[in-house]
Structures are given as structure tokens and as C-alpha cells.
Amino acid sequence: MHIDVQPSPRAVAREAARLIADAVADRPSLAIALPTGQTPLPLYRELIVSYAQSKIDFSQVSFFNLDEFVGLGHTHAASYHAFLKHHLLDPLGIRANQIFTIRGDARDSVAEAARYEQAIAKRGGIDIAVLGIGANGHIGFNEPARHLHPRTHLLTLAPATRRANAWLFGDRLRDVPRQAISMGVATILSARGVLLIATGAAKAPIVHRAIQGPVTTSVPASLVQLHPDAIVLLDKAAASRL
Ligand code: PGA
Question: Which end of the chain has the smaller Cβ count within 10 Å, N or C?
């Protein structure tokens, strides 16, 4: 695991964008899995700017989302699909046939999880999984638990995760779905490269546990320690407990 501490969230975004742009330049048809949340927003802005300035060609890249709320269709403003479209894919001019996202409003969530896992496999797996980390240590929506699901699955969100997502629902906690579909930890860790980003002092304790603590399912992000090609990109504040 390579740990890279940058001076600021902006510098984290720049470095993450550079890594992604380099990977796309090396392999224009790569498959990338992307997170939702506050942390990746500066990265997405940076990618849009770099794209405009240096013409990175994203036209053959496949974009996957790590997770999605159950019950929300793609047009729901708080869906992770809509989030990615709004903050990254539309400004980059990504075409619909390059976007592979989970359908939160599928009638059968278990079947949808299986379909998604197959879609990833059909695409040859994920090349780069970009991850945030929840304050409780989740990656994707793989919440701390005694047992983790390896593959894409239906799950119940932790109360802390629902609270952390309330901003997407106008701060109305009751509107935050109780269930989600997420890539599993094996789906994520099968990616050829993993890029975990965390910024801000609030993430410092969990970053410390994930990176320097034992590998444990009670901190799902600690499993990233097992990946042979993982980069952890932190700002100074998130790295302050290391
Ligand atoms: P955040 O979410 O970027 O909004 O802190 C991180 C996560 O839950 O993965």
C-alpha cells in the first residue's frame, strides 16, 4: 500500500486526477469505479478542468458506480447515478453506453445486484476502483460487520451512513433509504488498482484504523491493506493520526 500525503484537499484532487488521467492515457478503454460523497467532488471538478485543458480522451472509458440507494431511479436527484452524471459524467460528455450503474429502482434488488456483478465481469473487471472511506470505515456501502459480502449485494445501511447522506436529501433523514446495493469487497479488491482518498480531520481516526490497524471486517477499508496495488491519497488533516 502506497500512502501519499498531500498538503490540501485540492492537492489530493489534483494528484488523484493526474493518476486517473495517466491510467486513461495508458489504457484508453479502462473500466473505472467511482464513489459518491463530499470527498470526490474536488477530484471530479479537477477531472473536468483537466479534460477541458489537456483533452484527455475518456470516450472509451467505462464508468461504474460503487453503490446505489434502493428505491431511487436514475432520475431521482439523490440517486448516486444522478450524482455522478451531474458532477462528472455529463460535464465530461460521457455517452450513455459508457455508463454502467446500479438500478436502485429495480423491482428485484437481489437480481439487480447479480446483474451488476455480471456486467462488471463482462467488461473484464474494474481497472481502477476509486474509493472514499466512511467515518465508520465502510468502502462502497460495505458497512462494518462480522461477515462481509464478497460480491455486489443488497444491504441495510448503518444509521451513521444514513445520517452522513442526509445532505443529499435536503437534510431530511427520514427520506434517506434504509437499503442500498453495493459492490462487494471482493468486487472492489479485484480491481487492478485501488485509489482510496480521504480528506479532513474528521476522517483522521478511521484512516489511522484502516491503514495502521489490523485487517478486520469491522473496518472494511482495512481490507485495502491486502491489495497489491493500492494507493491511499490523504490530505494532511486526514493523515494527522498516522
Ligand atoms: P464522504 O463519504 O466523502 O461524503 O465523506 C465517504 C464515503 O462514505 O465513502
Answer: C
